[in-house]
Amino acid sequence: MKKAIITGPTGVVGIALVEYLIKQNVAVTAVCRSGSKRISRLPKSESLTIIECDLTELSKLSEMIDEEQDVFYHLAWDGTFGDARNATAVQVQNIQYTLDAVEAAAKLGCKRFVGAGSQAEYGRVEGMLDAMTPVFPENGYGMAKLCAGQMSRLRCEQLGIEHVWTRILSVYGPGDGEKTLVSSLIRKFLSGEVPACTKGEQIWDYLYSKDAARALYLLGDKGGHGKTYCIGSGDAESLADYIRVIRDIVNPDMEIGFGEIPYSEKQVMHLCADIEELRQDTGFAPQYTFEQGIVETVDWIKGSDK
Asked: H or E stretch including 191?
């Protein structure tokens, strides 16, 4: 891999992937939303080219890039939070955007297309998640991700491009949205606000963004055509334990409001990736502990909130 193109490069995974690819001497083309304020979070590098192109314009993307590319990473997605996850028109449009990205990849000479799916494709499952785990998404976001993965694989096969789909679990790190659990907890502990939480009995798998980026790089280089890979740490702890770790790092004297928020109607209570196939095919293994990732994330939030 000498050249890679990334949609959605300013999210928590995208930023880490851009940085990691540059360190691997890969020339990166970052496709950003027009006028995005988050563009400033991307690293300054001669190996990075930024192109402003909305998802609605992906069908014209190949006209904006002069050189052929090797790998196309499609991370961009509309409607990822709140009520938008069940906005059917928005989610259906995301499927078309994914297919537009495949067409652009073909026109740009890409040999491989790597798409970012989600654990939401599974719905609620007890036990480890892998490519063979039955899928039963319960919201529009998960349904659209599942369809986008399957349709993009079909189109890639028709166009002669290798296809790799990922189902990414809970990733945290610098650049993460303020509404995510990890980011919101860090900010509340920093400000001295006692966070209201559920009982925290959920068994969860968290992966630091730098590890997620490395997994995506390896899949772009070594992933198996037609395969689906879960991206996570492969280990799980109770959410309450994770919250206590964050508290102890940020402000160990703080209280935590466990049990103040009820579980949602369709609360996922068990989330853990089986990463054995990812490990076998690419050699991937997480390099960061949760504590190490939280320390770096806290430092980033302190700097960005100034």
From this structure: helix 181-191
- Residues 73, 178, single domain; the answer is no
Does residue 130 form part of some domain?
yes
20: domain CATH number is 3.40.50.720
- Can you say whether residue 169 is alpha, beta or left, with left for phi > 0 and alpha for psi between -120 and 50 degrees? beta
Maximum CA pair distance of the chain? 58
Same domain for 216 and 147, yes or no, is: yes
Q: What is the pTM of this model?
A: 0.96
Asked whether the beta carbons of 109 and 92 are under 8 A apart, the reply is no
Q: Is residue 280 part of a domain?
A: no
- Provide the sign of the torsion angle of the four alpha carbons 88, 89, 95, 97, taken in this order: negative
Residues 62 and 210 in one domain: yes
Exposure letters 50-77 (e unless 16+ CB within 10 A, then b): eeebebebbeebbeebeeebbbbbbbbb
Rounded Cα distance, 58 and 72, in Å: 12
How would you classify residue 53: left for phi > 0, otherwise alpha for psi between -120 and 50, otherwise beta? beta
pLDDT number for residue 171: 97
Task: Give the pair of three-digit tokens for residue 119.
Answer: 């654990």
8 A C-beta contact, residue 50 and residue 39: yes
- Strand ranges for the chain from DSSP E: 3-7, 27-32, 48-52, 71-74, 112-118, 162-168, 170-172, 203-204, 206-208, 227-231, 237-238
Averages of pLDDT over runs of 10 residues in the chain (306 residues) are 97 97 98 94 96 96 95 96 94 98 98 97 93 96 98 98 97 93 96 96 97 98 97 96 98 96 92 97 97 97 80
DSSP conformational letter for 193: P
> What is the percentage of the chain residues whose pLDDT exceeds 70?
99
pLDDT of residue 15: 97
